[in-house]
Amino acid sequence: MMRKSANILITICFSVMVALLSLQVYWIVNYYKTTLKDFEKEVNLAFEDGIKKELDLRCDTIQNIIEQKLLDTNAFLISARFDKKDKKYIYTVSAKGNEKDKFSSSFSLSDYSKALPKNKSDTSVRKHVAGHLALLMREEDLETHTIYYRTQKLGLFMNEQANKYQFDTARLRPAFNIYLKARNIATPYSFIVKKVDSTNNKGIKKLDYAFVTRAFQTYRYTDNQRYVRAMFKSPSAYILSRMALLLFSSFAMIVIVSGCMVILLKRLFWEKRLSIIKNDFISNITHEFKTPISTVSVAIEALNNPVIRNDDDKYNRYLIHAKNEIERLNILVDKVLNIAIYEDGKSTLLKEKVFFDDKIMEIIHLHEMKAEKRISINYKNDSQLNEINVDPTQFQHAINNIIDNAIKYADEKPLISVTVQKKDNFLTMQVEDNGIGIAEKDISVVFEKFYRVSTGNSHPVKGHGLGLNYVKQIMHLHNGWYKIESKLGQGTKITLGWPL
């Protein structure tokens, strides 16, 4: 049932992930298309503004030249006549040497109306008139690309200047760049000028360019540069700059959701694995409890037999068996309770000086006495120390569990070595056996609660999966460390580091 639920959850998580990715891709593609359209729109607007700016720059130049030319008394004469009917001055510009080549203006849209000063050095009125006429010619002639010959000489001069300062891409580029920069567009581009073109983009070949603007007339008739376009390379930089927030948020969302799903699935698998381990633990500890309980039951039943009660030797023997099995049960219960206490952080240390040589030798003798098979345990102290500040009870439990495991999983002729050394600021205790060893995949988890290398209801060596976890909790409580090295079929080496 749990496996089926896990598979359903995995399928749901995967489906949600695929749906999220699909939705993100859909959003990004649509936003990309919209941004690309915005790019085309912005570039065309910038190009149109650039064309107008280039024309303004040319008109500014020619306007200033015309104004200076009109002020040149060797070329043109400016006179003023007062019109009694309109009650304003009418100004006339004529080519010097040809009085018929002239034209007049009354500045009908202006309040300006002054006579020419008799003092020839006062050129204020001439400057105003020349400036106004130059502006008028700019607006009516240059900006409409049609030159009106108000005077033959002035018309020829304007035409000459207009041809001299024709459309030029060198002047257009800096103007265009200003409007591109204002729109945060930094995509490389080139200009293409043609004699014949279409302003609706039909029939244009993009060549190696991703986007081409619409065509604008240059009004340059002296050569083949009649139309101009701007051709852009890939607009990816602009699009990415516009999509940066969306891409970042999408990526962040995917990473967060993926991370949560991974954590959820890891937790699921861990719970599944823990459930299996707990079931295994319950199966094994049930066996551990049943054996002493059965033994005590048999002993009590035997003690109720009058024949046994009258035989002191048998009576005492049954009592000892019952006592030993009860002590065995008590030790097992203590281990389970101690693990819970350590994990809840309720355990306290009662440190004192312990002469560890005596304590370790005592543990070794006890194991040698109760071992069901002949064992050989060698002890060596290379630390040049004989005492350590630890909790005596916990110290004994830790060493006892390590040696007990070494004996349980040792070869038919157990050979165990216990070595004490001093490394840095730690007293290390190394227990090495010639046992069955541990597979590499199991080494990282043998210190976990309830974990046993063998699984299922049957184990080559009976146990409850608490011993090494008990050791782990004790070492953490002492701010020490533990290390395990093992190869399958070649034995195991466990090292405990006690802080000095």
Round the mean pLDDT to the nearest integer and report it. 80
Overall SS class? alpha+beta
Q: What does the main sheet amount to? A: 5 strands, mixed
Strand order of the largest sheet: 9-11-12-14-13
Strand residue percentage: 15-25%
- Count of DSSP-assigned helices: 11
Order of helices and strands: HEEEHHHEEEEHHHEHEEHEEHHEE
Cα gyration radius (Å) = 51 Å
Shape, principal axes of CA atoms: rod-shaped
Cα-to-Cα separation, first versus last residue: 51 Å
> Any idea how many domains?
3
> How many distinct beta strands?
14
Poorly predicted ranges:
455-459
Helix fraction, binned, reads 40-55%
Write a structural description.
The protein has 500 residues and is an alpha+beta fold. It contains eleven helices and 14 strands. It folds into three domains: 212 residues, no CATH class; 73 residues, Helix Hairpins (Orthogonal Bundle), CATH 1.10.287; 152 residues, Histidine kinase-like ATPase, C-terminal domain (Heat Shock Protein 90). The strands form four sheets. A five-stranded mixed sheet has the order 9-11-12-14-13, covered by helices on one side. Strands 4, 5, 6 and 7 form a four-stranded antiparallel sheet that branches. It has a three-stranded antiparallel sheet with strand order 1-2-3. The longest helix is centred in the first third of the chain and has 69 residues. It is rod-shaped, with a radius of gyration of 51 Å.
